[in-house]
Amino acid sequence: MAKCVKIGNRLVGDGRSCFIIAEIGINHNGSIDLAKKMIDIAVTTGCDAVKFQKRTIDVVYTKEELAKERKSVFGNTNGDLKRGLEFGEKEYKAIDKYCKEKNIIWFASCWDEGAVDFIDKFNPPCYKIASASLTDDELLKHTRTKGKPIILSTGMSTMEQIRHAVSVLGEKDLIILHCTSTYPSDAHETNLKVIETLKKEFNCPIGYSGHERGVTPSILAVAVGACAVERHITVDRTNWGSDQAASLETAGLYHMVRDIRAVPALLGDGIKVVYDSELPIIEKLRRK
């Protein structure tokens, strides 16, 4: 059995209650008020943590990419949009304060070394490595210097690339999430049996980061062994933004959390017994 990893006051691993992460990401659309509403959704539905994304815009994107035409509420270029969506110190201080008030863990996926250093000022309980960053050795090494647990997503990655990333990070205080990086993902791309493959190969907790429509794959992921689940959330899937369509609104998130929490009881212990509640049915239905 893989060792547990401690995230804040939670132990994440086999035999523990599933660690459920509500990925706010950039679905706040640059509004701290909207971010707080999504934190509230995560709290009321029973999630364990919320996650944001942090980038140093001029490092992550090229000048050519930022200069591309892209109309939004922030301006006419892709750079206007990216900068408009990026929270700074004022916003993250508000997030840190609000999450402490609501007693929920928060952390972020950091897309560059400067972003790691920025988030480190808030003493997060862990860091997330996004699927897009799995092959960035320098970012992996820099994140590891902070001495915190790391959650690694594995979308758009081969097994060899995952093995290399794990060799860079080490298995200590590492959680690996099976992931497919399409938004939203189709059923034939979900491939939940990869969770079993990862569990056999790596001596660390294995979870699932989903981008599918609905909640069934996330629940099935727990049934096949995922000890952590991450899903994007939103207040309204019709809002503008690239991640909204693959996100869960309040009702969907509530049902997912409820059903994930029920998985251990539904699976049981594998020992076939006759339950006391069945005895009256035996008397009623059995002839011999």
Helix-strand layout with pairing:
Blueprint: E1 5-7, E2 10-12, E3 19-25, H1 32-45, E4 49-54, H2 57-60, H3 63-67, E5 69-72, E6 75-77, H4 78-85, H5 89-102, E7 105-110, H6 113-120, E8 127-129, H7 137-144, E9 150-153, H8 159-169, E10 174-179, H9 194-201, E11 206-210, H10 216-223, E12 228-232, H11 250-267, H12 279-285
Parallel strand pairs: 3-4, 3-12, 4-7, 8-9, 9-10, 10-11, 11-12
Antiparallel strand pairs: 1-2, 5-6
Helix pairs in contact: 1-5, 1-11, 10-11
Description:
There is one protein chain. With 288 residues, the protein is an alpha/beta fold. The chain has one domain: TIM Barrel, CATH 3.20.20.70. The chain is 39% helix and 19% strand. It is built from twelve helices and twelve strands. The strands form three sheets. Strands 7-4-3-12-11-10-9-8 form an eight-stranded parallel beta sheet. A two-stranded antiparallel sheet has the order 1-2. A two-stranded antiparallel ribbon has the order 5-6. Strand 8, helix 7 and strand 9 form a beta-alpha-beta unit. Helix 1 packs parallel to helix 5. The termini are far apart. The mean pLDDT is 94.
Helical segment count: 12
CATH fold type: TIM Barrel
Give the low-pLDDT segments. Answer: none
**Helicity level, as a percent range?**
25-40%
**Strands, total number:** 12
CATH classification, class level = Alpha Beta
Overall residue-averaged pLDDT value: 94
- Radius of gyration from the alpha-carbon trace, in angstroms: 20 Å
Task: List the helices and strands in order.
Answer: EEEHEHHEEHHEHEHEHEHEHEHH
Strand order of the largest sheet: 7-4-3-12-11-10-9-8
